[in-house]
Amino acid sequence: MEEVSKSELGYKIETVTDNHKVKVAEKIKKMFGHIDPRKEEYCPIRDVMALASDKWSVLIILYLGYFPVLRFNKLKKYVYGISSKILSERLKVLEADGYLFRTMYPEVPIRVEYKLTDFGHSYLLKLLDLTEWVTQYSDIIIENRKKFKLNK
Questions:
Q1: Does some domain include residue 17?
Q2: At what angle do helices 55-66 and 44-52 cross, to 10 degrees?
Q3: CB atoms closer than 10 angstroms to residue 83
Q4: Among 37-46, 56-65, 95-104, which stretch is predicted with the lowest mean pLDDT?
């Protein structure tokens, strides 16, 4: 009996990378397939990602993951370069979205502490995946930037 290959039977032979790309495309289609960009004024994905993924919010969440509880001035010290105004704004947004708890103690002077919620911890896990990816590929990114600058 003659053996027939999968490709002759109509099966598409895919590499692991091809298969991964197909799965990613399917997830993205599921995510955006129902959205008509001409009618959508509000995009929850863009809105949530913009608020929770700016450079300051990511650092705040990472530091609150490392230190279980931090006060405002300690956070400001760790998130180097952030102004008090921006830190205050980011903390309010993260609290409003449910990423962190803010506890105010009736003392003089008033003591305010911040810590991640369970929801914030679940987001922290995803951020850790991303930061591990960045760490793994940072040399490639830096090299690509250098090549890009040379080609301009």
A1: no
A2: 60
A3: 10
A4: 37-46
Residue 35 within any structural domain of the chain: no
Quick check: 64 and 120 in contact, CB under 8 A?
yes
For the whole model, what pTM was predicted?
0.70
The answer to whether 79 touches 59, Cβ cutoff 8 Å, is yes
Give me the domain span that covers residue 81.
42-139
Rounded distance between C-alpha atoms, residue 108 and residue 104, angstroms = 11
Tens of pLDDT, residue by residue over 28-49, are 677 666 666 656 566 666 777 7
- The end-to-end CA distance of the chain, in Å, is 60
Residue type, 100: L
- Look up residue 58 and give its amino acid: V
69 part of a folded domain: yes
Q: What is the pLDDT of residues 120-149, one digit of tens each?
A: 999 999 889 888 988 899 999 999 999 898
Q: What is the predicted pLDDT for the residue at 117?
A: 96
> Could you give the number of structural domains in the chain?
1
Judge whether 87 and 42 are in contact, CB under 8 Å. Answer: no
